[in-house]
Amino acid sequence: MVSTNQFKNGMHIEVDGQIFRIAEFQHVKPGKGGAFVRSKLKRLDDGAVIDKTFRAGEKFRQVRTETRKMQYLYDSGDSAVFMDNVSFEQTEIPKDVVGEGLQWLPPNAEAELLLVDERPAGLQVPSAVDLAVTETEPGLKGDTASGGGSKPATLETGVVIQVPLFIEEGESIRVDTRSGEYVSRA
Prior knowledge:
Blueprint: E1 2-3, E2 12-15, E3 18-28, E4 36-43, E5 49-55, E6 59-62, E7 65-75, E8 79-84, E9 90-94, H1 95-98, E10 110-116, E11 119-124, E12 128-136, E13 150-155, E14 160-164, E15 172-176, E16 181-185
């Protein structure tokens, strides 16, 4: 059991039979009356964010969370197939669970899968990935590293980002997965 005094951002708790991730919380001690904790909780099932107030010292069941290194194998339509690097067991995970992180993973890439009570709950990709450019317009004469401007480029995972004019097809580039922006040549 975990008390409101032990709350941490990112912790998972069970409230009324549903699992929530603590997005943020604030202990409030009014001049009159008992202390309480005001919190924003994100429901694990559908991602809905709710505001909830608890009395100070209230206890909840802490949900066990862990990350497991897994290899992304392939896309099977409405789900993605991952393989556990230790047991070699394959797992199909719905795309709405893995979310936006899947667009940065080429097949056979490793990622960390977040498990909450042994159920997949999210995907953690590195902050920057190296991907090959599969399609972009050719650079024009005079395009230099210092010359401004950008053009769209399709990467090996199918995502389209803006790259500098001097980048050509077949080159490998580094992309920031948090913002989706070009960082440098790989």
